[in-house]
Each structure stands twice: as C-alpha cells, then as structure tokens.
Model the fold of this input.
Amino acid sequence: MEFDLVRYGIEDGVARITIDRPQARNALNREAYRQLEGAFREAQRDPAVRCVVLTGEDPSFCSGDDVKELMSGLPDEMARSERPVRARPTPAALAVLECDRPVIAAVNGAAVGWGMDLTLFCDIRIASERARFAELFVKRGLVSDIGGLWRLPQVVGPSKAAELLFTGDVIDAAEAERIGLVSSVVPHDQLIPSALELAARIAANPPLAVRHLKEGLRLASHGDVHELGAWVGQTLARLFQTEDHREGVQSFLEKRAPKFKGR
Done:
C-alpha cells in the first residue's frame, strides 16, 4: 500500500515505522490508523524483517485520536452524541500485537491517550528525555483501549496502572523509567540510534528463536485480547453517548477545564 501519513522502510532486517503527522502532534485520523495497520501487516509479511522500530516525527510520538477529523465526517447529531464502535479490538492495535517480530517503541515526545496505548502494544519501550505519557481517556469520559486495561497492569503492576488510568495524570520520562514503563531514557538526539542499535542486536539473533520467545511471552501473559477488545468496544459504545464524554471533548476543543456530571 502507499504510505504518506506513516513512513515505512527496511534496512538490515529492521523495519522502521514513523507516524508522520507532526502538524497534528501525530494524532491519528482514519487514514493514519489504516496506514499504521498496513505498515505492521507489511512488516509481518516480509521474511526479511527481524525487528520493528516504531516512532513519531518530532516533536510528538502520538497524541492519540485526531478528535476533530474523526468526528468531522459524522452527522451533527451523531457527532454530539455518539461514535460508531465495533465490538472488537482496534485493527491497528491487533496489527501491532499480532506482529511476531519484536517491536521497539522509540518514544520521542508525548505519548498520550491511544498514543500511550500504542507504546504498550510494543514489546520494548525506550524514551527520549522529552517523552511524556498519559492515559487520558478518563478525562474524556471514556475507558482505555486494551493497551491500558490489559498491557499496562502487566508492565507497571495493577496498583500503578489503576492510578494512571483513574487519574489520567501525565508522567515524564524519568517517572516512566522509575515505574518500569520504559526500559531506558536517553538524550533526545540518541533515541533513534539507541533504538536501532538494540534492534540490530535483536535482529542478529536466530529469527525463529526470537519469534518463539515472543510467542512464549504472549502465552505466559494468559490474556484473552479478543474478549477484552469486545468488552472495550461495547463499553465505548455506551460511553460515547454520555454527557461527560461530550463535555470532555468540548472542553478539550475549547481549551478549558471540564465540568463532569457523572451522566
């Protein structure tokens, strides 16, 4: 497929995928979601790919959904009250999770909302000193995708995951390293070289063994991603119709503090 909102390339067995919408802080619209899914499916199909590095074009990693664009194609009444949701995991999320090659997230800036979930779909996270993380869904009156609900507790533990999900707090790179969300924090100009160097070390190992190691790690987690994804879809379908969701979106667009009412 053709890529313009996502850049895709391969060198020495490492596929490099870059979200390229810097003017929108790499927020994902429908086409960007489609291209992100396509890039990971392309990497999965290519026997030459032994490792994947995912990043964003500076200054952000991914700021989640492009709210304005995703709601612009809906009728006015629907945009105010609901958005169509499928009772299954997000296709782009599945494309990352189902990739049987190790995936490294090189987090170069803000990774918030679905952008933070995207880092959690990856196997390893390396952060620039400029990285910031937040599960912002609660601020919009919603629940996280499977990244926050399924992967985050595995990575940082149930208690810290609950704190991040319930508060929607933003944490910096140092805190992310302290709680084990990222493997390491490096100077910004060393982020991509560090990620590519790690990817090269992984790619130098026997590819079948690496793929089986990844499969073993996945089996060890005992998580049913499809069942959880269905629950997320059903829950979001209800939450998109709430006043609190509309207030969360409207206050964000108007750059003001939200006033949630619990309905």
Remarks:
- The domain at 6-189+207-254 is CATH 3.90.226.10 (2-enoyl-CoA Hydratase; Chain A, domain 1).
- Strands lie at 6-11, 14-19, 51-56, 103-107, 110-112, 124-128, 132-134, 171-172, 184-186.
